[in-house]
Each structure stands twice: as structure tokens, then as C-alpha cells.
Design goal:
mainly alpha, Growth Hormone, Chain: A, membrane
């Protein structure tokens, strides 16, 4: 694992050096001078890790710790899919009236509270409580993701919007890739060598490992709350006038 991360760091460093010297870079790093974009991209990276952690490991908790059927583990994620579009709708309704910071902060706070609640669940926690938690987490994702998308597109000139939006999407995907790697390593660290016949994991052992995973998700969400709180206290302009002077 150490060699993989070392290799990844070397190639990432080479990529940054090449992009900084390229006449037409894939990722214009000058965009990160924009405080709005910087915060939106950091939160996108963190939220990508949180999202993949929830979708990968909460069903594992339901099936491996609560010992419910695979169908039940999949149904646990449906409330998040219902809360997400509701949050996106509410975000669209109130973003002009309230501004970007209150809505995005409310969204990431819901995610943080949801992941915090997951750190307290036990093998006796009813599945219906997980469903409620995931609904509010989905609501938080809908609120925050919508605002960050608007921030990214409204903080640059028209000719940079495609680049800014694709960079934000790339960082969300990168967050998922890094997230599933790190969380998987943490879980394997807890259950490695503690399986029966090399295949079966006792529910209490799996629960301990997944609790560590949920704690990491809460830490990521808390970092997202702190980062979002640094958004400037002003209303973004929408339309062609939204060329951001502080960025470009």
C-alpha cells in the first residue's frame, strides 16, 4: 500500500508540474486563486469520499451486521436518492433569496449530523433509523451539491465555465477513488486475519471495522463544514456579469 501511494504521489507531482508549464493545461491552476472555486472544489473532493463511503459500506452494515437480506441493504440507500432531489429543489428555490453560504452550510451540516449519527449505531439499531438518517443525508447532499455547482459556474467567465465545471466533477470523482481506497484499507486493517476459514467475518468484528469507517466519514464531513464556513459573505451574481475579478 505504501508503494502504491508513493507512486501515486510521484505521478501527481509530475502532472502538476506539467500542467503549470503547459500553454493550454487540462486544469488551469489559476482558477484555484478564486476563493469560491477553491472552497467548492475542496468540498467536492471531500463529499465524493463521503458519498462513496456511504453507498459502499452502509449496505455492508445492514447485511453483515444486522444480518438482513441483500434487498434490505439496497433499500437503505433509497431514502438518500429521495432526499437528494428534494434538497436540490429547495436549494434552487432559496439560493437567490438567501445566498449561497447559508444553504451550502445547511447541506453539509446535515451530512455531518447524519454521519455522526452513524458512528453511534449498533447491531441493535433498527433499519428504519438508518433509513431516516440516509434521507436527511441525501437532503444535505442535494442542498450542498446544487449550491457548489452554481458557485463553480457563476464564479468564472463564460469561456472558463466548462473547464471549471469539469474540474469540479473530476475532483468529486477523485474523492470517490481516494475515499474507497483509504476506507477499504481501514476496514481491512480491522478485519484482516480475524475471519473464519478466511471467508466469514463475525458481525461484531465487522461492526467494529465499519464504525471506524463511519468515524472517518464524519471527520470528512466536519472538514467540509469548516471549509464551507469560509465562503465569503456576499451574494454571487448570476448571468454574464459574473466574471470574477478575484479569480481571473
Amino acid at each position: 500500500m505504501f508503494y502504491l501511494f508513493s507512486t501515486a504521489f510521484v505521478f501527481l507531482s509530475l502532472f502538476v508540474v506539467i500542467q503549470l508549464n503547459a500553454p493550454d493545461p487540462m486544469i488551469p491552476f489559476r482558477l484555484f486563486k478564486n476563493r469560491y472555486l477553491l472552497i467548492a472544489n475542496i468540498c467536492g473532493l471531500l463529499m465524493g469520499g463521503i458519498l462513496i463511503g456511504l453507498t459502499a459500506y452502509l449496505p455492508l452494515w445492514v447485511q453483515g451486521v444486522l444480518l438482513l437480506a441483500a434487498t434490505s441493504s439496497g433499500l437503505t440507500l433509497i431514502p438518500m436518492s429521495l432526499g437528494w432531489p428534494l434538497g436540490a429543489y429547495l436549494s434552487g428555490q432559496f439560493i437567490v433569496r438567501l445566498g449561497t453560504k447559508p444553504i451550502s452550510l445547511a447541506g453539509v451540516s446535515l451530512i455531518a449530523l447524519g454521519t455522526l449519527a452513524l458512528t453511534f449505531i449498533t447491531s441493535g439499531t433498527p433499519n428504519v433509523l438508518l433509513i431516516i438518517i440516509m434521507f436527511f443525508v441525501g437532503l444535505g447532499f442535494g442542498l450542498a451539491m446544487t449550491v457548489f455547482t452554481v458557485i463553480v459556474q457563476s464564479s468564472v467567465t463564460w469561456d472558463n465555465r466548462g473547464t471549471a465545471a469539469s474540474t469540479n466533477a473530476f475532483l468529486r470523482t477523485l474523492g470517490q477513488t481516494l475515499g474507497i481506497t483509504v476506507l477499504g484499507a481501514i476496514l481491512n486493517q480491522h478485519i484482516g486475519g480475524r475471519t473464519n476459514n478466511g471467508t466469514h467475518v463475525e458481525p461484531d468484528i465487522l461492526a467494529a471495522g465499519l464504525q471506524s469507517v463511519f468515524m472517518i466519514l464524519f471527520i470528512l464531513a466536519l472538514l467540509c463544514v469548516i471549509t464551507t464556513s469560509l465562503l465569503p459573505q456576499k451574494q454571487l451574481e448570476f448571468g454574464e456579469k459574473s466574471s470574477t475579478k478575484e479569480a481571473l
